[in-house]
Design brief:
With 280 residues, the chain is mainly alpha-helical. Helix content is 76%, strand content 1%. It has a single domain, classed as Farnesyl Diphosphate Synthase (Orthogonal Bundle). It has 14 helices and two strands. A hairpin with a 2-residue loop joins strand 1 (87-88) and strand 2 (91-92). Helix 1 (2-20) crosses helix 4, helix 4 packs antiparallel against helix 8 (150-175) and helix 9 (180-207) runs antiparallel to helix 13 (236-256). The longest helix is centred in the C-terminal third of the chain and has 28 residues, at 180-207. This is Polyprenyl synthetase family protein. Belongs to the FPP/GGPP synthase family. Its cofactor is Mg(2+).
Length: 280
């Protein structure tokens, strides 16, 4: 675990330096409240691990990794406003702490800092822009074109969660100088991991407690959010099987990249297996 923890620590250090440089101090404090309150750092870890898997170094990918985490957190701020969720990672959500206006500004600030980190690389900008289009379509689908069956749900999960996971992996491959096939195949791996992650999230929301999750439980049902267990007749156990299938497809894509067996590749494999058994 020391190997992975050192990569996450590198991301956290860079996050702190980015946020400390934000002006004015009030905005810096708000961004810090959102980003530094915790979080799994799954997406930035994917960016760095993919970069290392294709022969790069963590330092090559850390700015892209931080950028992905900032985009993710910006989306969470808006999610919490839409859902009126007053807890995030065991602390008050941005709108609950500062109010709606400052929270929206904080989300904008996070995106601005993220794109500053991507701006030196045209391919990175394209990857992130495309993922944000998908993310926006996913959020809109969830609110106004709600899925009513499993196939429509899978499209939603790909857009809402899978797209940013894909971007995280593709950015890592780009940072490591990978060829287009490898970039695309790592993207496929991560998109499947993201969909599995989202399905497991739905199951946990339906079955876990708020203290287990560090955020409100039963939220999908209360808000009538179209989770897999809400719009189908699947039991939580059957939904977990759907997540397992996505995990297996992710592992197949990882094998298809053809990259050598390394610690980084091993952790990517572990991630695909972990997301479907995690408890929070």
């Amino acid at each position: 675990m020391e190997y992975l923890e050192s990569r996450v620590a590198m991301v956290n250090d860079r996050l702190e330096s980015v946020i400390d440089a934000v002006d004015p101090d009030a905005l810096s404090d708000e961004l810090g409240h959102v980003v530094l309150a915790g979080g799994k750092r799954v997406r930035p870890a994917v960016t760095i691990l993919v970069c290392e898997s294709v022969g790069g170094t963590p330092e090559d990918a850390v700015d892209f990794a931080v950028g992905v985490e900032l985009v993710h957190n910006a989306s969470l701020v808006i999610d919490d406003i839409i859902d009126r969720s007053d807890i995030r990672r065991g602390t008050p959500s941005a709108w609950a702490e500062y109010g709606y206006g400052p929270a929206i500004i904080a989300s904008d600030g996070l995106l601005g800092e993220a794109f500053s980190l991507f701006s030196s690389n045209e391919q990175a900008m394209q990857i992130v822009a495309e993922s944000m289009v998908e993310l926006g379509e996913g959020e809109a689908t969830e609110l106004v074109a709600r899925p009513t069956n499993e196939a429509e749900y899978m499209t939603l999960a790909r857009r809402k969660t899978g797209a940013l996971f894909r971007a995280a992996a593709e950015l890592g491959a780009v940072a490591g100088g990978a060829d287009p096939f490898t970039v695309e195949t790592f993207g496929e791996y991560a998109e499947r991991v993201g969909i599995a992650f989202q399905i497991r999230d739905d199951v946990l929301d339906a079955t876990a407690t708020a203290s287990d999750l560090g955020k409100p439980a039963g939220h999908d049902a209360a808000m009538e959010r179209p989770s897999l267990v809400q719009i189908t007749d699947l039991t939580p156990e059957e939904a977990n099987e759907r997540a397992k299938h996505q995990s297996e497809q992710a592992l197949a894509a990882l094998d298809a990249t053809g990259v050598s067996q390394t610690d980084a590749r091993g952790y990517l494999r572990d991630l695909a297996e972990f997301v479907i058994v995690r408890e929070r």
